[in-house]
Design goal:
The complex is a heterodimer of chains A (139) and B (331). With 139 residues, chain A is mainly alpha-helical. Chain A is built from 7 helices and 2 strands. In chain A, strands 1-2 form a two-stranded antiparallel ribbon. Chain B is an alpha+beta fold and 331 residues long. Chain B has 2 domains: 164 residues, Cathepsin B, Chain A, CATH 3.90.70.10; 148 residues, no CATH class. In chain B, the strands form 2 sheets. Chain B has a 6-stranded antiparallel beta sheet, with helices on both faces. In chain B, strand 5 and strand 6 form a beta hairpin.
């Protein structure tokens, strides 16, 4: 890549105004660091991943508010995790987490378990308790 | 403490470059990557990242830190903590002693990262060079300027749980030599890179891994449009987004070859650098093809085309690293 080929596609850039360092050659073929404000192809790839998470989050939110699942799937996607990541963060088995996705099970969960979820999402445990009481909005 | 922040392309090589330069052994980021043999390729279908196979263009996290300090003969002082409070105390103590401290942390919980870039990746590296009250002065290698971070946020990022959990890892270098045998280091590190890239009898690592990925792409089901789109853009993200300096570290390594070539006055290395720059351009072109296919506009490249572009890259890297291995063994 030559210095003048370093992409500067600011539009829809995922760097949010930041610049990233790339390595490119000048006219004599000498390497230098060069700042890039964004690359179209890369931005598209990032947006795909973000959009996929956003869809999952919205679907989980609707299912939670319709009473089909507990709040946990929504919070999981909201904090950009999947079941595996949530299991690793809470130290709970995946089958237990899937069980906690059921509304009746979630309502019975002791504070001890809720605290582990609260720590994984870095939320106050009171918020998870409020969801247990049937709150269907974010605090 | 007087400390000069330098922006880097990648966190780990950037941290090592800053630590060594600060300790009196000036070292550029490409040199840190090259001398630690940090470049590689791996496609590991068994390890999943949000449902997608692990694709890496470099050695596993901490490889650069450990290998480089070992090869240079410095002492790497490192500590992890089971108790977060002890981890904070150790950081404060080291800063009071005037040390430049390397830390491992999660990306997701660092508030100064833009939301678009915040994913659960626990092996990010950054430096702390001071503290003002409850705010730490940080040098995050991938940012243009030094940043500040509140104590609570930094604690959360250092002690985030999950895969590759940092457990508050702190590290710094002791006994950094002021003179090193560049010739010996460069030869042995290039030889070891050529062995990683094309010497392991494993189908997922190095050239074999690239060819394996190419076969996977050719074998994708044309009908599964959504999966293909997420799969192909996942490859692009691993190659470009995660701080690689462009083309999955290929440009950075080419820069290392050039610097090494002029240091030792070896035209062979400069020629190899040019070759690798061309290969890097092929990687960028491959990323572009992946995105064009996913965008699905009228004239989109076929999966077979993308796959053969990748096979061509594998061939070119095989030739290049064979030549480099020969050079490294000479004398």
């Amino acid at each position: 890549m030559k210095l003048d080929e370093v992409p500067q596609d600011t539009e829809s850039s995922a760097y949010a105004g930041h610049q990233k360092l790339l390595y490119a050659v000048d006219e004599e073929g000498c390497y230098q660091g060069a700042q890039s404000a964004g690359w179209d192809a890369e931005n598209y790839a990032t947006q795909q991943a973000l959009a996929e998470l956003e869809v999952l989050e919205q679907q989980a939110k609707q299912r939670w508010q319709a009473g089909e699942t507990s709040v946990l799937p929504y919070l999981m996607y909201r904090y950009r995790m999947d079941e595996l990541a949530l299991a690793q963060c809470t130290g709970l088995w995946r089958w237990r987490i899937r069980r906690h996705f059921k509304v009746p099970v979630y309502q019975q969960l002791p504070v001890r378990i809720l605290t582990r979820y609260a720590q994984a999402f870095s939320l106050p445990v009171e918020q998870l308790l409020a969801y247990q009481q049937g709150q269907l909005d974010e605090l | 403490m007087s400390f000069n922040h330098e922006q880097s392309a990648h966190c780990e090589s950037g941290v090592m470059s800053s630590l060594l330069t600060h300790a009196g052994l000036p070292m550029s980021e490409p040199m840190a990557l090259g001398l630690s043999s940090g470049i590689a390729f791996a496609y590991i279908p068994l390890v999943k990242l949000s449902g997608m196979p692990l694709i890496a263009y470099r050695m596993p996290p901490k490889h650069i830190i450990k290998t480089l300090s070992k090869r240079l003969g410095c002492r790497l002082h490192s500590a992890t903590f089971s108790n977060p409070a002890a981890g904070k105390q150790a950081l404060d103590q080291a800063l009071e002693q005037g040390r430049l401290v390397g830390m491992q942390s999660s990306v997701f919980w660092l508030p100064y990262f833009p939301p678009e870039m915040r994913f659960h990746f626990n092996a990010h590296n950054l430096l702390a060079y001071g503290r003002e009250g409850e705010e730490y002065l940080l040098s995050d290698p991938v940012f243009e300027q030094p940043v500040r971070c509140a104590s609570d946020d930094l604690q959360r990022a250092r002690f985030a749980k999950g895969s590759l959990a940092a457990k508050g890892l702190l590290y710094w270098l002791e006994d950094v030599p002021s003179e090193v045998d560049w010739e010996k280091l460069i030869r042995s590190s290039i030889l070891s890179t050529s062995r990683i890239i094309d010497g392991l009898p494993l189908p997922w690592i190095g050239i074999r891994g690239i060819a394996y990925l190419a076969r996977k792409i050719a074998g994708l089901d044309e009908q599964a449009k959504k999966y293909n789109r997420l799969y192909l853009t996942h490859i692009v993200r691993m190659q470009e987004e995660i701080g690689t300096g462009g083309a999955g570290f290929r440009f950075m390594y080419a820069s290392f070859l050039q610097e090494a070539g002029s240091l030792l006055n070896e035209p062979a290395l400069c020629a190899a650098s040019q070759q690798l720059t061309a290969i890097g351009d092929q990687w960028r072109q491959f990323a572009l093809l992946c995105v064009q296919h996913s965008r699905g506009k009228s004239e989109k490249p076929s999966l077979a085309e993308i796959s053969s572009a990748l096979l061509a890259i594998a061939q070119a890297e095989r030739v290049l690293f064979k030549e480099l291995a020969c050079w490294a063994k000479r004398k």
